[in-house]
Amino acid sequence: MHERYVLSQMANIWSEENKFNLMLQIEVSACKAQAELGNIPKEALNEIEQKANFSLTRIKQIEEETNHDVIAFLTNVAEHVGKSSRFIHLGLTSSDILDTCLAILMRDAGVILLEDLYHLKEALRIKALEHKETIMIGRTHGVHAEPITFGLKMALWYCETERNIDRLKEAIANISYGKLSGAVGTYAHLDPFVEEYVCSQLSLKVDPISTQIIQRDRHAQYLATLAIIASCLEKFALEIRNLQRTDISEVEEYFSPTQKGSSAMPHKKNPIMSERICGLARVVRSKSQIAMENIPLWHERDISHSSVERMIIPDGTSLLDYMIKKFTELINNLFVNKANMRSNLIRTHGLIFSQKVLLALANKSLSREEAYHLVQHNTRRVLSEDQDFKEMLLKDPKILAFLSPAEIEDCFNLKSYLKNVDFIYKRIGLI
User: Is residue 293 part of a domain?
Assistant: First the structure.
């Protein structure tokens, strides 16, 4: 992973030092369980607990010879422990240690991501409340539709973030399983008590049934959840990018006094963070596809998933951590141009009120088709003649045959479009 997109807290989770520390904890905890079963002398356990250690440099040296990272780790631990090291790793296989360790790492990374999402949710809550009545045009197909508020847009993202929190909690719960069941999952050379003891010590659940490994549907769900969250962030960021277009100019990313937008054009203020988030979302999504391909493995296990997971899981969690934190900063510092939102509302000369006119006519004994035809005839004239929609209606005898000037005027009441905003806010718990 490019260090540009890795923040320190997540980097610590996926460091080699942290990984081997956890592997050591698992091995020592397994020794304690074996000692309780009477399989390891108390003196040997004491020596293991006191002396068990490792050196990253030495592990790398040994791995150059063995081409096996767990054996290199165990060999180095044995160098520290001495004679009693013969009791370490009794009845276990490498994946007992690796998969249990990976579960802890993914759980801990998930906790960081959850914290990130809670911060984003709060930022969106604040913006939603601040702009509950900030009127802007709603767009469908990129075309002006009817008035909404910017707060409603933020409230929508707030609810999506709530759902992402729920999804991530479930994914963390389903990955928080350890296994110490031996080479093919049958506990042939160790008591299941060892697994129960170790998982209890590490706050993991015991996988009810495993092969040499924990099955990869758990990991695939986790990566798929990251992909959904990244896609939501891309959706949010894409909206910021579109609303920052020069010809819309309704919001703007914070641009510091010393920041530069272009090497060639000094006037440029580009939505670079939103663009970056959109780009990184593609990378996170790609990890989920690979995780799906890790589910089918040969028999009780092959190693084809291993090399892939060393990249996709640290990279996926690190990128998403970066994306959520950066987007939260973006929301906190976002400039909302209320004046431009107002000016864009009148850009189509009142056409955004066409449905109000349609419904008013339909209530006057006209068929919907007849009412639609009358309104559309006027809307097309507005566009072709660059006229004001309301003024055109007030001059149209076919319209005036059914609607009084006061009734036409009432159709252009902007506030009537927002009468249920409070209802929506209450329903989603914002007020």
Answer: yes
